[in-house]
Here is the input.
Amino acid sequence: MPQVLDVHAVRAWCALALEALGRDREEIDAINVYPVADGDTGTNLYLTVESAVQAVEAVFAGLEPAPPALPDVVRAMAHGALIGARGNSGTILAQLLRGMSQVLAGDAGGEGDHSESADGDSLRRALRRAAESAREAVAHPVEGTVLTVAAAAADAADGPSADCGDVARAAYDGARAALDATPGQLAVLGRAGVVDAGGRGLVAVLGALTEALSGDPVAPAAGRGVHHAHVAADQPLECADGEGPAFEVIYLLEADDQAVARLRTRLDGLGDSLVVVGGDGLWNVHVHVDDAGAAVEAGVEAGRPYRIRITHFAVGDAHMTHPTKGSAPTGEPAQRAIVAVVPGEGLAGLYSEAGATVVPERPGEAPGSGELVEAIRRAHAREVVLLPNDAELRHTAAAAAEQARTEGVRVALIPTRSAVQGIAALAVHEKERRFDEDVVAMTSAAGATRYAELAVAERQSWTMAGICQAGDFLGLIDGDVAVIGEEVTRTARTTLDRMLAAGGEMVTLVLGDDVPDEVAEQLERHVRETYLAVDTVVYRGGRNSALMLIGVE
Here is the structure.
């Protein structure tokens, strides 16, 4: 029976692509010489796919236990890549995924259908549309780049097989062959003895697609030139010829098609490496310019630019949330800093008062590793303790810590799974201690803190505590549903009793905006009257915080 591309294969593809790029990121960064030798292509591709993975997982989580439809999953993949695209290659990859999704979701001029899976012919047309749309998005396409590799993959996939596994394998093999030929197509690659970094990343993504469909790992692609042995791994690579523009400018843009057409013309006159991807009112704009302000102003004239990121090629990143506000830290770095992901404005204030650099966690939008790396840079310290405060952010935080270490920052990741564990860690933090001793003390305090969260059930479902109905209050202890109740105070009290049954000295309550003060008063009184020598401290989580967080130390 021919292999098809269904929602589970797309989900596996995204996860395997992220794993492959994480594994190959440093190698891809090391061979990045075109269009600018800034050594971040692998990282940018990783962050782009990471955003796509988060969007796909959100679709699955929102419909569990039922699986989502294929059009919804591939559109989410493309949208996630679009809003998270980084750098020249990441932006092009986002357009490649968008082109594929248009066919697989049936959005490309009647192509495709809305069935539960795609066959080999649909996958072939998706790869072709991907290559064509990516080339259309680049103002001045250059051969020997990721565009060439994408076109070769689509050409190689052209055949009679109805099996998606066969199509993916052919595309992967064609991409690898095209990648090996890139040093002979682009002079700067030939002189450096390397293949195109963006093309190398695309080969990794296509290899992940092949593995997702066949179940068999593919042979890794080599990153160096035709003979794969021209340059030692730690030898500096030759930069592209000439003095290029000073800044890379990237932003998301809400604008109509006509305004974007005018924007392309204006940005093309300001600089080079222009890539504008997207559609349906949302675009990702990437350009290299000398006048970063003019590039942003052009976006303002076209529509509403946001998530603006400006990088100065000469001195490294100048991370800005607005072109006229904030810049890369200057001066002597501090010895030690804390970076923490925090849900809720009230808790953010609490963490900031304790000296932490805060990364806000917005409902339904977990921060990516790039955002954590930026926060570590903003903390501007030689040593950083990273508190993710969420079990789901463990891998994201690990990727951010690894990236920061390559930039010379000593980073310790404490695997806090809740903001109340982070509070416990902050309470024992002493910057005068040796770094290792401070990390051990903070880790011990966090690990000794049991955590719980009160939430409202969105639908009927099975839990470890029984069947809950939509609207029920749930007490989740250490991530598992332990209590189901119909009233918030009683549910919180029962959850507290379960936690304190194993002992404790301190209770921390973090209340969301919808929880009245009387609830905290009743819980404080219950602890005081029932558990001798147990203290209670109450904080307001503020907007965007959970209904209630509970910590027991």
